[in-house]
Design a protein that fits this description.
The protein is an alpha+beta fold.
Length: 104
């Protein structure tokens, strides 16, 4: 039985950072060091990828190898983590009212 890595921050970092470093190594090797990988990184994700994008951005900040994430774009993040969470969110929303007379 496989273990799911859904929404586990360290797993996203541990699977992405080695790929970046390997890509850097291969690019230098294949071009006789005439081409280097740009150290500016843009990260984007949607749904689970949104969570992963934030986790990878944090890992790049901690990498201390000259890499800099320039932008992190998130389309969405995982919402349905549990039925209880959705129930609580819906219940809180039902009792939330806006006074339309006092809005600016």
């Amino acid at each position: 039985m496989a273990i799911s890595s859904y929404v586990v921050r360290d797993v996203y970092a541990a699977s992405t950072i080695p790929l970046i470093l390997k890509m850097q190594y291969d690019l230098k090797k294949d071009t006789n060091c005439t081409t280097v990988l740009d150290k500016r990184v843009a990260i984007a994700g949607f749904s689970e990828g949104g969570y992963a994008a934030v986790a990878v951005a944090a890992a790049i900040d901690q990498l201390d190898d000259g890499y800099e994430h320039t932008i992190t774009a998130i389309g969405a993040a995982p919402l349905k983590l549990s039925t209880e969470q959705l129930y609580s969110l819906g219940k809180a929303t039902l009792f939330f009212t806006v006074d339309s007379c006092n809005t600016r």
